Amino acid sequence: MASASPWIIEPTAETFDVEVVQKSRTVPVVIDFWATWCQPCLMLAPILEKLANDYAGRFILAKVETEQNPELAGAFGVQSIPLVVAFVDGRPIDAFQGALPEKQIREWLDRILPSEMDRLLAEAVEQEASEPAQAEAKYRRVVEEDAENWFAWIGLGRVLAAMKKLDEARSILEKLEARGYMEPEAEQLKAQVDVQAGAAAFSGDVDKARKAASADPQNMTLQMELADTLAASGHYEEALELCLSHIARDRSGAGVPAKESMLTIMSTMADHELAGQYRRRLATLLY
């Protein structure tokens, strides 16, 4: 009989991939292999069900009755039950056998489940584009708790740069650079801040930047501010074409700042395929 709890499911061989494997990519799934004739299983079941409800969605309990699902039991090589297997990110990561006491199972769960800080980080990453203020608040909570969580510092800097809080983003970059090394994500943040700073001259207004650059086509500062403004507004191809045109006309003069701007813009792009195309075009032009 199916459980009334939203955190307890009974997958079959047909639904296992969706209900367990795929589901475990967003929330851990704990599989309980059991049978009606198994007394230790019947002792363990209420403990696992209680914990599933106590943890209120931090994991999903998947009950697999081995007599009704011999394919699943065979796939996991189940020889003795109860067998409890934890699935995270689409794969089994840990297991235990036998009817353990509740305290011991809680300790096991706490080892395999994401911590509160892990959950905050995951939520912050998810909210960066759609809810940057909420993402900022969550990143700040993480770094307050763990001042050396560099992933969170980089995420916070990324959100601040996107929200045009460039002074705060630069402060984070200084903290990152003071370590003596920069992760690729930190380098990307640095490029993002540089592009946003270039766009700040026109407050991100593409039309204003375009008019200013058109009025003084020999002014490379205005030309590159236009490129930065275009990139900051998501018009990457136009920004990169602008840089390429200046490089093609004068590789050793105007092309030098254009090349630097182009490399910076490409390092901020999420579309790696498009960035790769322009890297190849730049290399062909230069070499």
Name the CATH homologous superfamily of the largest domain: Glutaredoxin
> What is the number of E strands?
5
State the helical fraction. 55-70%
Largest sheet: 5 strands, mixed
* Discrete helix count: 14
CATH architecture of the largest domain: 3-Layer(aba) Sandwich
Spans of at least 5 consecutive residues with low confidence? none
What does the radius of gyration come to?
27 Å
Strand order, main sheet: write it out.
1-3-2-4-5
The arrangement of helices and strands along the chain is EHEHEHEEHHHHHHHHHHH
Mean pLDDT, to the nearest integer, reads 92
The CATH topology of the largest domain comes to Glutaredoxin
Overall structural class, as computed from helix and strand content, comes to alpha/beta
The first-level CATH class of the largest domain is given as Alpha Beta
Distance between the termini: 70 Å
Number of domains: 3
Fraction of residues in β-strands: 5-15%
List the helices and strands and how they pair.
Blueprint: E1 8-9, H1 16-22, E2 29-34, H2 39-54, E3 60-65, H3 70-75, E4 83-88, E5 91-97, H4 102-112, H5 116-127, H6 132-145, H7 150-162, H8 166-177, H9 184-199, H10 206-215, H11 220-232, H12 236-249, H13 255-268, H14 272-286
Parallel strand pairs: 1-3, 2-3
Antiparallel strand pairs: 2-4, 4-5
Helix pairs in contact: 5-6, 6-7, 7-8, 7-9, 8-9, 9-11, 9-13, 10-11, 11-12, 11-13, 12-13, 12-14, 13-14
